[in-house]
Amino acid sequence: MAHKIHPNSLKNLKPLLTSENAREYQLKAAASRKANNLAREQLKLTVKQFKEFKDSFEENPVGAIDILRILMVKALDEDDLVQAADLAKSLAEFESPKLSRIDQTNTEVSVDELSDEELNRMLKEVSSNIPQ
Fold it and tell me: Whole-model pTM?
């Protein structure tokens, strides 16, 4: 009769290392180290790019719109389409003027109160404002 381990036993918390899963853990650790090294290198590049940008910024000041454009291009280079679309929306507000609001005034006139000449004149005004 095999001795059953209780489900709440601390023995269940110990990882059982075998040669198969030990190799798997080694591969995971190597991949993790590789990813960390890659992230560290990218951070170094980002810091280097920032320092270069900072130096060139002091020589040639850049506006907020230019920075939005640069960030949008960088997002497109990284295939981050959602971020690029958000930045494009922000840029659109500055690059294209907003349409002005048109105030409309509605006037109610009874036909009984108008003479024939006034009625014809008003009809001509209204029909001339209708786009063809």
Answer: 0.36
